[in-house]
Amino acid sequence: FLLPFYRILSTRKVWWGLGFFSVRLLPQDLAGDLDRRRVLLHFVSSAKPMAACKVTLAVNDVQFADVPLKVVNVSGHVKAGINSISISGSGIPRDLCVGVLVVDRTEDLKLVARLSDDGQGIHDVSAAKALSALMDDKENRDAIVDCATVSLNCPLKRARLVVPCRGADCRHVQCFDALAYLRLNEATVRPLWRCPVCDKDVDV
């Protein structure tokens, strides 16, 4: 999910052990276009699903409760030099790996052009695929679909879709706008990363 939206500049990976680690950020990591530069925490584990696991995250002694183990934007809470990060809570996977990513967010026009040139978006958003998946669901095998109404407006921003997308596990035809979805989730340290249409977890 992340690759079309961000250009990764540097990556630092730390295995979660005692729940505390430190990461050094260089001045150039936080320089550049401040409107586009981001520092993200990316949580990865073989345990599935991780969406239900929420932890207490502390970044340089500033604590945030109920943070999901997904992708978290901590740009406003880090500094050049040594940064201390701690994770605590119950049910944390033993093999949890925390990736500290320094990225630049892709400009909207470049992103739209890139997706158009590739001929594909984040996921295949064809109505035929969504309807096929819907019919494959055993709960819907006896249903007859005569027509499906789809809005061209994003349910998040109430405006026309620019980059339509759905979660990989979504069973509906309706799309939401990927740009609006990204902005909404990166604006908080408690991102939901859930589909605004069906409320399913979206894998990032």
TrEMBL record:
One of its GO terms (biological process) is protein sumoylation. One of its GO terms (cellular component) is chromatin. InterPro entries: Znf_MIZ (IPR004181), Znf_RING/FYVE/PHD (IPR013083). PROSITE patterns: ZF_SP_RING. CDD domains: SP-RING_PIAS-like. It comes from the Eukaryota. Pfam families: zf-MIZ. The keyword Zinc-finger applies. Gene3D superfamilies: Zinc/RING finger domain, C3HC4 (zinc finger). Keywords: Metal-binding, Zinc, Zinc-finger. GO terms for molecular function: SUMO ligase activity; transcription coregulator activity; zinc ion binding. Residues 139-204 form the SP-RING-type domain. PANTHER family: SUPPRESSOR OF VARIEGATION 2-10, ISOFORM I, ZINC FINGER MIZ DOMAIN-CONTAINING PROTEIN. This is Putative zn-finger transcription factor.
